Amino acid sequence: MAHSQSPPALLWQIQNARNHAEQIEFLRQLKDGVVGDVRAKETWVNHGILQFLVHLLQQKTTAQSPSGLGSKEAYAPISQTTDLPDDDRVRLLALQLIASFAKGGPSFLTPLNAVGAVPVILTYICPHKNPARLVLTSLRALSDMTEAASLSSRTSIEATAALAKALFVPRYIESLCAILDAESASSIVQEQKCLVASLISRLCKEPRYQDMLADAGVLDALATLLASFVVARGEVLPFTLDTLEREGLAAVIPQPAPRGLSLALILEAISVLIADSRFRTGLLLCSPAIMAVLTSSEIGERNSQIYRTWELLKKSGLTHGRPVDRSALDYLLPAVPVTTPRFLLSQHHPSFPSTGRSLETPAKHGRATARFTTEDREWLVGGGDTEEPESPLIPWLIHLMRSGTNDHEKVMAASVLASLFKGGFTSPDREFSLSVLVVPVLCHLLKDYEKERGKSLDAIFVDSETATAWVILERTPAVLARLIADSVFLQQVTRDSGALKLACKLLKDSYEPTAIPSPPRPWTPNPEERQDTGDDKFSTCQLGPPGQVPLCAHKIRMRESSLKLITSLATFKEEFRKEIVEQDILPSVAESLSETPQKPTPPKEKLKTEEDGTVPMHPAGHSPYGHNPTSVLIAACHAVRTLARSVSNLRTVLDDNCVAMPIFKLLKHVDIDVKIAACSVICNLLTESSPMRDPLIKAGVIGVLCLYARSDNAGLRLNALWALKHLVHMTDRDTKKKCLEELGPGWLIQLICDDTEDEALHARIMGERRPLTDADEDEVMDTGDGYAEATDDVWQWQAIHRKGPGFDSTRMRVADGMLRALREREFDEVRKAREADLAIQEQGLDFIRNLIAIPQQPAQAEMIDYIFSELGQDRLFDILASKLRVKILRPFARRQSSSSGTPGGGAGSGASGRNVSIDSRVLYPQSKIIVAVIYFLTHIAAGVPRHRQLVIAQEELLKLLAGHFNNKDVDVRRSLCHLLKNLVWCDGTEDRRGRDLRVFELEKLGFLQKLEGLERNDAELDVRERAKEAASSIKGEAGEGPQVPHGRVDY
């Protein structure tokens, strides 16, 4: 029988077949022998079968280009026939065999990559140049390789990143878009679409890939598929069709979604593409298909009744604000209160400034725009009297969550909804609706699937039902964390629903030891014939590392997701942090800070185990607790950061569980994002109240932070300065001087004086702008693997561009203008550089302020003199004055309207695409910098009388300060009152004459009059009271000396 042939004999027959029919028969024998048999697959790999399969796939007909792309006019229709020519059947079997080998697990990725399987497979995904069955099989092979890469123990991120790098290039992105745009209703095409959506959701994690897919029209294609489900559910409003005809949108209403297409996968791919981006989220909402099937039409009669009822309630004093513009789709939802008490609607905790940034990590993952800021709401849809109404997609997603029967669909709908909510695309009153209709659903899903997770816990391979349940359990905490991250009210609802204790339980459960962490080697009757696994990753005939079992990978993903939910719940409220600590999860959090975790052990038991010398050590790759990837390390850092906002936690559980040294070790990690996350934790561990400050100083944290303060990465540089600011506050003078010496006075001056990021951007752009020679132009024309940034001058909205010149309407033009504004704001490199410079300068000024923040008067005066001697007295005051003036960057460069400065320091709205203006710009003083300057002067004025006199002598500086008494920022006005109180403080009788001179100078400059104006007219009671105290001090009416602020510590 043919099946009994040895691999060398069968391989010889395959290679030397006389025709395609004979080769097909031998390949089928090979396929029957290896499917489901890992040992047989290993044997065939050892005999070099993969290299021959790739060789078969490379033998394409010459009529097809290597990329599978040509002119669109030459594209052939998608083949859906089952009859294939013999040469295509050979290639189909080769693709099926590669997919089968990929199903063998992570160990087969090494030989597959060594033979170059991925580039060859990608040449078969173009639906216009390949039969549908070949496209489907190639997508299956890519999906199987992606799944195998996710099970790699230590290199899963690198393996998936390599696949993403190969797939997400323009020529293959166009193929993905063509598959999603296919109008065929056949089951083969629907499976292709599902596989494409799955690949996007699993591989497209980096913003650059997300932007490429969105720009190429993939996001619009996915939005069209989402709209087809709205049509299939019969939820298109029939009375809007006439309006759509007039607006030219009726033609884009898609056909109902055919059977076989997965709504959950489409939603998941959309949620991945729009994550953390207002522009991409806007692309979803402005998709023509979404705008056509989900219009914002209102039901006139019922809407007028709502307005009349609202007016009656408003006249009775029973409500506030304005009525909610409910679309017709809102009536599919259960009735909920249309308004909520003011104290419940708080996007940000009152104790924290609404800057949109975490206090310790202003540049999460090194990107200043990683989080949405409340100041950007003016660019967004929804949330104001003059803004566009909320998109009907939002109530439709809520309705889908409540009416659907597929739990996976519910979670993915909530994920898309979380991006819309975080991006500010929902109305202000939607928060209460989310708390009633969305958060409880997610919490119930979390409870239900947590109870079912005990099934199949010891299985090496899992069935599809269990895998789906695991996906839901892994994604739900992360989705819930994103949804509630910036809302105290939603965090309260989540905690009341029991999700806090569930998140803690999931984290502890993720550290249950796995009995079989890696797949066992298959049994063989001849073990001496088995070849050892090679370490050479370029070997084409040897397997790689075995990876991990699905259960172990599931626990690691659940570990990351639960840490994210714990972080969101611990962001604002102290009572939530206390409850989290009471769940005894700190040992698990501490182990999550290590790449090779061990059993989470309480501090007392851990100390006893170490004394007995019975600490279990597991060999690399065989730990029952898995290997923590960088995503878990970062999530654990953020969890420690939020828990460390509590002084009680700093002094007890965090210190007892010894988190300081693991964090310090992560400061030296090779991954830049891990360094930034660890540096953000160090900010809180180095505060005055932390018992971990001294051990970290002894370990050498000062040298590491000073080194990172010189980093090229703006996020790392900012967090390092922030940590140093906390470190020098209320510490001894020797430590303060050591920090300044290691950082370098010259470098500190450069940080607070220069616009480092802006100048670096200017230098980079000037270096890129050089005349192109003929050779350069040829090189650009030959480039096919990436977008040419320098030539991307004009951005085109693919949703309109692909529909042709006849597709135009007023709504689409308005949407196009909004998208261009969102895109410019998101990709404005000048604005990002300016924000990074301002944040770094603010922390640098606060660092100098904390250097002189010493309670004892003689010591403080000595430190002030030391700062003046190191930095230069006149130079320092000149820098402070420059922060209060309007600044012109590159004044001799030409000015353009698209780059003219605004008071906020951002660029205008005339630019488009990714253009970077390097022309002259006007920069206005920023409130945070002004406050930092004033508080630094306040601390100088807290010194001896000659220091106060020194400040009074800076006449130009005082005149600049006088112009900020009408500043709209309340912190500026309040800090000015502090400064003036300190300037008129009298140190005994010997300072009385000096005080009188200072009062005279201040009155001459008009400060008393301005204080009296604040006392009478300021809208803030606190400012009025402080202005009253400062004015009384100047008039000599104060009975006691001022309380000098010695520094502010932000937790």
Automatic annotation (TrEMBL):
Top-level taxon of the source organism: Eukaryota
Q: Which UniProt keywords apply?
A: Cytoplasm, Nucleus, Repeat
Spell out the SMART domains in the cross-references: ARM
List the coiled-coil residues: none
InterPro entries linked to this entry: ARM-like, ARM-type_fold, Armadillo, ARMC8/Vid28
Q: Where in the cell is it found?
A: Cytoplasm; Nucleus
Q: Does the keyword Nucleus apply?
A: yes
Region listing for Disordered, in residue ranges? 513-541, 589-613, 1031-1051
Q: Where are the transmembrane segments?
A: none
Q: Name one GO biological process term.
A: proteasome-mediated ubiquitin-dependent protein catabolic process
Identify one Gene Ontology CC term for this UniProt entry: GID complex
Which residues fall in a compositionally biased region of kind Pro residues? 516-525
- Tell me the protein's name: Armadillo-type protein
**Native source species:** Neurospora hispaniola
